[in-house]
Amino acid sequence: MDKPMSYLEEILQALCDSEINASISWLWDGGIDVKLGDELTGYDAEGQVSRFAEASTWLRDQACQHYPDSGFARKYCGFV
Questions:
Q1: Residue 34 phi, psi (nearest 5)
Q2: Which of 12, 29, 45, 53 has the fewest Cβ atoms nearer than 10 Å?
Q3: pLDDT in tens, 9-61
Q4: Kindly report the CA angle at 64 between 6 and 31, in degrees rounded to 5?
Q5: What is the pLDDT of residue 80?
Q6: 31: domain range?
């Protein structure tokens, strides 16, 4: 089951607090593009989802995979 919309806000704020760059963009009929990283230094992961609730899960999982030593990972991924 998808998390509520407030979870997306929570994930985005936690990524920002951990200084992890991410982006979400969309065209009304083209799905929702999600990216971890940035244009300047490169993207660690890029994907597409169909709902914003899926975007929060995607960003969380990718941040855990690519930034396992971050404060974000300690909070959301159970890493110590």
A1: -125, 140
A2: 29
A3: 999 999 999 999 999 999 988 899 999 999 999 999 999 999 988 999 999 99
A4: 55
A5: 43
A6: 5-76
Q: 3-state DSSP call for residue 29?
A: coil
* Total-model pTM: 0.86
- Which SS3 state, helix, strand or coil, does residue 37 take? strand
- Whether residue 26 contacts residue 71, with contact meaning beta carbons closer than 8 Å, is answered with no
Number of domains into which the chain is organized: 1
Amino acid at site 54: E
Cβ neighbours, 10 Å, residue 47: 16
Query: Smallest Cα–Cα separation from 62: which of 49, 50, 79, 47?
Result: 47
Which residues neighbour 56 within 8 Å (Cβ) at sequence distance 6 or greater?
Answer: 3, 7, 8, 10, 11, 12
* pLDDT per residue as tens digits for the range 62-77: 999 999 999 999 999 9
